[in-house]
């Protein structure tokens, strides 16, 4: 009985230990030196130094060149997006300010009194008035 119990414990201990995992072999149609880059993506660098991505699709594998984007251009684009106002001032008459915004469905226009404007709208009006030429008398 003692030997049976020891054998059973050793068998369970060995069964629960995981074998060391090797890097998964790429499927057929992908170069053997490819490295897994995701669940359905493999990365391969050819002899010319180009890096290719192989992505599994329902129709087979899609091969595309990996192009690294510089981080500075992404930051510049985000600055441009934040610098551009979402709306502009169309006109200012008798204490009423007309704003407009371009949307995919055409221009959106709205009118507000100067006392009811938000901080963004007030800043847009200030920029509009500073850029406008002085009125002739």
Distinctive features:
four-stranded antiparallel sheet, three-stranded antiparallel sheet, alpha+beta, elongated, 30% helix
Explained architecture:
The protein has 137 residues and is of the alpha+beta class. Among the domains are: 29-67, no CATH class; 83-131. The protein contains three helices and seven strands. The strands form two sheets. Strands 1-2-3-4 form a four-stranded antiparallel sheet, with no helix packed on it. The chain has a three-stranded antiparallel sheet with strand order 5-6-7, covered by helices on one side. Strand 1 (35-36) and strand 2 form a beta hairpin.
SSE map:
Layout: H1 2-16, E1 35-36, E2 41-45, E3 51-57, E4 60-65, H2 71-83, E5 88-93, E6 96-103, E7 106-113, H3 119-131
Antiparallel strand pairs: 1-2, 2-3, 3-4, 5-6, 6-7
